[in-house]
């Protein structure tokens, strides 16, 4: 187990697990350091991004940032067109100075299609959600599965609320994240995966759990995250908050989902049953 918060964290994980299952979990898998990743050096083959890509960011960033109460961030946008036309890769991260660094790779970005547009919109909303999270926790200190899962939940809500995505779009993204969680469950219990910061566990199961907590507690993803952030890094306060939100049946269901070894079970059924709640018989 990573010693994220030292003795206090380890003690809370043992002492409170009977009443507040989350203590052991919320001490695991810290997110990126406060400094954040630095922007990579530009590729020798980098060129100006396609006009439609720059125009899309210019139109999206101010409005989405404003909805989250953020100043308009700088976008460091770089493009490498050399891979084949079928090659479409987008990576992004928030730098230490709160720039959103975006790297596009592949000649397929020259054409605006539903696929390329969806990738840009979804990724931008996710990175803006991380900027919003920094307003509450300036050093991204929470576990990666809360950090990334929370950002996914906030981003999906943001895109639907602003009308950029339909409910069908949201369900498509929700299903894709649930599938990532299913893949993580095929690898065994989530605890060691959270400790190892496995991507499918962090993004997929992190989203599934945050979305479930928001629904069961009657909170929006942003409201949920804000209340959790207000308790961080005190695991006792965090456990008390979650214990107040959730009835005993929900606590037991979540504890089982996070601790059981689901190998041998159908992972899609496990995820669906968990999301349906205690009455589903998980």
UniProtKB/TrEMBL annotation:
Keyword Signal: yes
Signal peptide: 1-34
Presence of the UniProt keyword Signal in the record: yes
Entry keyword set: Signal
Protein name per UniProt: Peptidase M48 domain-containing protein
